[in-house]
Design goal:
Helices cover about 45% and strands about 15% of the residues. With about 270 residues, it is an alpha/beta fold. The protein is globular, with a radius of gyration of 18 Å.
């Protein structure tokens, strides 16, 4: 460990269990010297696993917050600033849910009420978090915000369904709010487009096993692990990335810029 985040204070959204990227990011940030607050939706916290993460991070407080409820977010920031003794240096937004996918609705026959909830939870929640921090002046000068996304925002992956639209919106919020926050307080806002990863959320996508194997063959470096993504988040939270903002950063072993690999060609010729 290099103490890259020594003295920094952050909020981690979305840690569910040991599989989740948010969980591994919290551990990585703590190991690099950061002080943390953990948060998730009340229904997720009732599962109880996040309490173990809290213990592993020096009893970091766990504060429930519904990301579509502005009062919850205001309370979260108030309690976080109070506990941490000052402003926030970094935030991880690891939040996503597709109601249509959960209900088995195909993209061509989606329920638009469900779709509105998906966009609100998975994308506009980032705007709500940033808006709350902006109004409360809760982020320190030069703070860093990272949201997790996926390449389906740019390319068609049929079974990714409406989450592709949500990720596209998430990335646009990053750019637009990133502009305003950079001018106001040199706050950096970026998305990381991660390889398909065996998390609770990722494994729920139809055909996931076949796709993760395909992505492994299509990535010159192979699929990036959740641990690798956590380390990349640490880098983005650190001062070594202080001039990077409004970017969608591919963390996928080269998948995003590979047309085809020899391994795929050989597989298709069998």
């Amino acid at each position: 460990m290099y103490n890259l985040l020594k003295g920094k204070k952050g909020i981690i959204f979305g840690a569910l269990n040991e599989q989740s990227i948010a969980w591994k990011t919290a551990k990585a940030c703590f190991n690099e010297g950061a002080e943390l607050v953990l948060t998730n939706a009340p229904i997720a916290l009732r599962m109880g696993e996040i309490n173990q993460l809290s213990k592993e991070c020096n009893n970091a407080p766990v504060i429930p917050a519904d990301v579509v409820n502005m009062e919850d977010l205001k309370k979260l920031f108030e309690e976080s600033v109070k506990h941490l003794g000052g402003g926030i240096d970094f935030i991880l937004h690891s939040i996503g849910m597709s109601v249509n996918m959960r209900k088995g609705k195909h993209y061509t026959a989606m329920d638009y009420g469900f779709n509105q909830k998906t966009l609100d939870i998975s994308a506009m929640s980032l705007h709500r978090v940033l808006r709350t921090a902006w109004d409360m002046d809760a982020l320190n000068e030069g703070a860093s915000v990272v949201a997790l996304t996926y390449i389906a925002a740019q390319r068609v992956f049929p079974d990714y369904n409406e989450m592709a639209d949500a990720k596209a919106l998430l990335e646009n919020v990053t750019r637009n709010f990133g502009y305003h926050y950079a001018i106001k307080k040199k706050v950096r806002i970026n998305t990381i487009s991660q390889s398909p990863t065996r998390t609770t959320a990722g494994s729920g996508v139809k055909g996931f096993d076949g796709f993760i194997n395909y992505a492994e063959k299509m990535s010159p470096l192979g699929n990036a692990s959740a641990e690798d993504c956590a380390n990349y988040c640490v880098l983005m939270f650190s001062d070594y990335a202080k001039m990077v903002t409004m970017q969608n950063l591919f963390h996928d072993g080269g998948f995003s810029f590979t047309g085809v690999t020899q391994e795929v060609i050989e597989q298709m010729e069998k």
